[in-house]
Amino acid sequence: MRAARGSVRVRLRDLVAASDPGLLRLTAGLRTMGAIALTLAVLTLLHADVPHLVGGAIAAMVATFAIREKQPGPQAVTLALGLPVALVSVSLGALLHSRVIAGDVFFVALIFCAVYARRFGDRGTALGLVGFQVYFMSLFVGATVSALPQLYGVVVVAFAASAVMRFGLVRETPAGILERLRDAFRARLAQLVSAQLELLDAGPDDIDKALQATREGTARLHDTAMMIQGRLEDGTSDEAVARLVQRRIADAEIAAERLGLLLLTARSAERADTLTLHLPGAPLPESGRLPVRDEAPETLRRDLQALRALVLRPVSAHPGAGLVQLRNRLLGYRDEENLPKASPAVQDVFRGIGECARAVLGLRIALDGPQDESDDSPSAARSREELDAEDAAIDGGEESAEDASTGLRRPTTRAAVQVAVGSSLAIVGGEFLSSQRWYWAVLTCWIVFINTASTGEILVKGYRRLVGTVLGVIAGLLLAALVGHHTWTAFALVLLCVFAMFYTAPLSYTLMSFFVTAALGLLYTLLHTYSLSVLVLRVEETALGAACGIIAAAFVLPVHTDRRTNDLLETVLERLGEVTEAAVEQLSGGPPDELLDKARDLDQALADLRAATQPLTHPVTPMRARRDTARYVVALLETCAYHARSLAAMAELLPTHPSIAADPRLRRAGRRLLRNIDAIAARVADERADVEVETGASIAALLESELADGSRYGRITDRVLRHLQRLDEAVVGLARPLQVPVAEPKR
Question: Of 653, 588, 584, whose CA–CA distance to 251 is shortest?
């Protein structure tokens, strides 16, 4: 019974870790909710009235969520600097309370400075947020000069409560976050293997659902790998250890994605197209269920289950559970040991499982330290030797990038001008709607500019905020009717709404807006200013603020969605060319390079492009053809990035792996591919560029001599050619949607 309860706890922990990598959303929600609760408790002991309780809750929330640095030291400095900024802001709010014109002018100037401060990094962003939001708080509670001493005390208590929660009760360290992200990576890797098991067993009616689960699992695993990449520098004191973890994470991610492709191939008559894993709606290969009477599928199913167990449970922790024997058997597939009798494509899946088992072994060593080697088989020992040799060859490298834009071309300057103009419009329009609550329109205008960079992104964000606000108004009506004027019940519900707001913020901006508006309805109830007309006014001011933001973005120094996506697409193609060229050069015998860093730069550029295309791919967009084209291009680029990552990972094996050697012929085979990437990038940068994409013989046919006789399956040389070929096909596939001419093959 105790073992069963322990197993349930482990499964629940893995589920939570996979759904919230690093527990970042949970921690943010708990920390903010705790800071507000602690502030309310202290202010209650000091006999503060309801308006001051509401002001304290808002100040505590701002002091908590505004801090963005990753290290505790810089967080403490920013929080300390934020207190005088908040005190000055609330003072000016009270002083300008009765001076309408002067107050409006200052508010616009404050908004400009708060947005412009983003150019100074996380600290500038945090101080700008504190200044704006605390000024908004003074407007919300109707701060006056006579009430300033009490408000000073409220702000000090709120900042102190935020510090207690951040550095005491809900303390986070970069190392702790990184450790939880590692656990999340393992949990999501196990979920992906489970999805691949479903893909193996799916019949013709279930294949679409199973494939979608595999796609989602692959994307979630990649997202977690990117999160780990962003935390390695701060979470690891030893640079060599950081690069080791980076390498092992990349190995596991690539091996798992390749296993999914091999499973698709085993179900089909032809090799599965990589695009199938990246584009919903892509044509599936002719496939069917693997023959159930054959011995191979049953063995394959058991081996996938064993692989999942290896991911979740360290072998050394279960010496009698048989995992050692399972691991040794899976690793043996890499050396052609005990391969079940099956078709070549199915045998390739077994080899893929062996590669995954090897990646899991490397991941365990990197994350958990040395493992017990007493029961290693010869294959396991060889895998350890390879991993040790690779570990010894890993050294550090640093890269830095700096935005050279100046003046109005600088994104922060442009955004500051836009939001200042939009806020001015919102103030004028908001005054016509309500002389008391016009600031809601300004708040919405401000918010739609945060983390957006094009007119389309602002339009989508404004739409989502309006939808969330309308739904939140309905919820606010219901909650206010239930709570009435029960102060502490209302505050408890506000705390729950705040937690839900921060927990759902990274997942859905609409949900976040819903919980914000629901909480505001409760706060209005506490301030005895609640009415249906107030909540309707909230919707009107939100719509007005979103409209003003969109107008400012469209007519003041506009950055159109097409222009931004083209700029980001050009960056992705440049990064793709850099990774491919460096990998091919190293695989051809050239000097070593920082390949994994280049690959992660490519992944980050692709993530930026994917976010920027959201206005084009949004379900409500009326331009269906344009939406399909954007999805297709992003899916092709994801396919390209996968193959480029794989080439980079194999190129880094060259100095240490005994079965891999440089092949100078690859340099010549990759020239056409690199020329095509450059041609497409040139056409994206300039529509008038006179370029064309070349096609012709396969990458393998471009080599001067044939490969050595023998089995081609599982050979690194063959895998390099396969990735180059798929990358070449995907790059040529980009030519049609991007309207780049394709030259006729030379005969």
Answer: 653
Alpha-carbon gap, residue 189 to 195, rounded angstroms: 10
Identify the DSSP state of 658.
T
Average confidence (pLDDT) over 541-552 = 88
The percentage of residues in the chain with a pLDDT greater than 70, rounded to a whole number, is: 84
Kindly report the backbone phi and psi dihedral angles of residue 477, in degrees, each rounded to the nearest multiple of 5, phi listed first: -60, -45
* Helical spans, DSSP H, in 434-528: 439-449, 455-483, 487-504, 509-526
Q: Helix or strand or coil: residue 652?
A: coil
Q: Which of these ranges, 161-175, 245-259, 261-275, 644-658, has the smallest mean pLDDT?
A: 261-275
pTM of the model: 0.80
Query: Rounded CA gap, 706 and 72, in Å?
Result: 58
At 287 the three-state DSSP class reads: strand
pLDDT band at 706 (very low <50, low <70, confident <90, very high): very low
Q: How far is CA 559 from the centre of its chain?
A: 23
**Region of residue 401 (phi > 0: left; psi between -120 and 50: alpha; otherwise: beta):** beta
* Residue 430 identity: G
Between 227 and 617, the more confident residue is: 227
Q: Which amino acid is at 467?
A: V
Query: Could you give the C-alpha distances from 40 to 157, 219, 488, 645, in angstroms and in order?
Result: 9, 41, 10, 51
Query: Given this model, what pLDDT does residue 396 score?
Result: 42
Q: Is the CB of residue 333 less than 8 Å from the CB of residue 350? A: yes
Rg (CA), the chain: 29
Top mean pLDDT of 108-122, 227-241, 438-452, 731-745 is at 108-122
Cα separation of 263 and 272, whole Å?
A: 9
**How far apart are the C-alpha atoms of 742 and 738, rounded to whole Å?**
11
Distance between CA 404 and CA 584 in Å, rounded? 30
Confidence of residue 181 (pLDDT cuts 50, 70, 90): confident
Strand, coil or helix: 268: strand
Cα 547 to Cα 433: distance, rounded to the nearest angstrom? 14
How far is it, in rounded angstroms, from Cα 547 to Cα 434? 17
DSSP state of 451: T
Cβ partners under 8 Å of residue 141, min gap 6? 51, 52, 54, 55, 58, 527
Q: Tokens for 251?
A: 């190995």
Token pair 């903010």 in the structure block, residue: 32
CA distances from 280 to 17, 261, 702, 738 (A): 26, 15, 33, 20
Which residue stretches of 394-454 are H helix? 411-433, 439-449
End-to-end CA distance of the chain: 73
